[in-house]
Amino acid sequence: MLEKRLKLFKLLGFEVGIDLSWVFIATLIAWSLSTGFFPFHYEDLNTQTYWIMGIIGAVGLFISIIFHEFSHSVTARRYGMEMKGITLFIFGGVAEMPDEPPTPKAEFMMAIMGPIASILLGVLFYLLYQLGNQLGWRDPVNGVIGYLSTINFILAVFNLLPAFPLDGGRVLRSILWRVKNDLKWATKISSRIGSGFGILLVVLAVVQIFNNNFIGGMWWFLIGMFLQNAAKSSYQQLLTKKALGGHTVEKFMKTDPVTVTPEISLRDLVEDYVYRHHFKMFPVVQDSDRLTGCVTTKEVKQKPKERWDEIKVGDLTSPCSSENTVTPETDAVKALSLMNKTGSSRLMVTRGDQLVGVITLKDMLDYLTLKIDLEEAA
Q1: CA nearest 362: which of 277, 239, 245?
Q2: In DSSP terms, which residues pair with 29 in a beta bridge?
Q3: Does position 62 have pLDDT exceeding 90, yes or no?
Q4: H/E stretch holding 313
Q5: Long-range contact list for 74-78, CB < 8 A, 24+ apart?
Q6: How far is 328 from 129, CA to CA, in rounded Å?
Q7: Using CA atoms, how far apart are residues 374 and 378, in angstroms rounded to an integer?
Q8: Do residues 348 and 327 touch, judged by C-beta distance below 8 A?
Q9: Omega before residue 115 within 30° of 0, cis
Q10: I want to staple 121 with a disulfide (CB 3.0 to 4.6 A). Which of 117, 152, 188, 341 is the partner?
């Protein structure tokens, strides 16, 4: 969800970015406000004014969500939790936290500060809206301020719903965690509640659509599907971290990987290696195990097929980087995260300039499937 990320700025040590999905949702919000919300509440304004109000309202929502997420991040840092940054995505924002909170209290305080921040913003905009009424500000100005007050209260209430991974769901998880001292059990229960709530929203969306409220129904449907998927994936992520926790790449790597040399032709690479082993990336080695780089099918496709006999692998070999190599001591969870980030299913395991193995996504997933299946059954 968060891999196609565009960096915007850095504030208080936190990097703020947007997922590409936010471009879609911001456009949809501006359109909904410009063609539905503001024309309904403020009649007899021209189309250009409605669109200006809609765009400013969307930008205000953008800033409100950042403020909401910053409150999470600052609180998390106070409790010693590492925060990578803040990313706005299709249904709001997320403070990127690589690890689970250390204690139930830390999670409770981190989770509750988001809704509190939104309530404070809602009160601030409401007071500003009342001031505008007293001073006779024009409808386009006061209309946007009133919307921002309302939407921040809605953000607070919605996020307080006990549906994981919403803030209210995290509050619920922290309480369950404190009661039973079992994070896995608490996550399982709160995730099921979150998934059930998502299904409920989808049902309500269908009702809205049948009642001729297509825009409202569409929003409920999208939010419901998001919540259901997010709840399930959050629990799966915890299971993954628990299963891989404490293990290094060395446990999963294959010490006899398939390699190629710089001297072979692209024709031999394709016929003898790609079609035989079905890999898209091969380590290129010399002198038995000295790694000189890697070659991928992406580079091969860029060369005319009629020249495959004359072009050598060494001509297409690209240098190794931190995106396609790890060390045997690398944490397995970090290696899995790197695969997810780069879209690669294989990473080269190196020690210095020596290739000592290859780790594949398939091997890690097979291990996860077996471990989770056995332990869940037990």
Answers
A1: 277
A2: none
A3: no
A4: helix 313-316
A5: 74/12, 74/113, 75/109, 75/110, 75/113, 76/101, 76/106, 76/110, 77/13
A6: 59
A7: 6
A8: no
A9: no
A10: 152
Name the segment(s) of the chain with CATH classification 3.10.580.10. Answer: 249-377
What pLDDT is recorded for position 183?
A: 87
3-class DSSP assignment, residue 355 = strand
Determine the angle formed by the axes of helices 183-210 and 214-244, rounding to 10 degrees.
Answer: 160
- The continuous run of DSSP H or E covering 348 comes out as strand 346-351
What phi and psi, each to the nearest 5 degrees, are found at residue 280? -100, -10
Helix (H) or strand (E) holding 201: helix 183-210
What confidence tier does 1 reach under pLDDT thresholds 50, 70, 90? very low
What are 6's strand-pairing partners? 18
302 phi and psi angles, rounded to 5 deg? -80, -10
For residue 378, give the amino acid letter. A
Which strands make up the sheet holding 290-296, listed edge to edge?
Answer: 281-286, 290-296, 354-360, 346-351, 325-326
Q: 337-370 burial, b for 16+ CB within 10 Å, e for fewer? A: ebbeeeebebbbbbeeeebbbbbbeeebeebbee
Task: Give me 274's structure tokens.
Answer: 């790609």
Q: What are phi and psi of 112, to 5 degrees?
A: -75, -25
Tokens of 233: 């994936």
Beta carbons of 148 and 57 less than 8 angstroms apart: yes
In CATH, what number does 249-377 get?
3.10.580.10
Dist. CA 81–CA 151, nearest whole Å: 29
Q: For residue range 258-316, what is the model confidence (pLDDT) as tens digits? A: 889 999 999 999 999 999 988 888 899 987 778 888 888 888 998 999 999 999 999 98
Distance CA 33, CA 228 (A): 26
| Burial tier of 232 (Cβ tally within 10 Å: 0-12, 13-18, 19+) | middle
What DSSP element (H or E) covers 17? Answer: strand 14-19
Predicted pLDDT of residue 32:
85
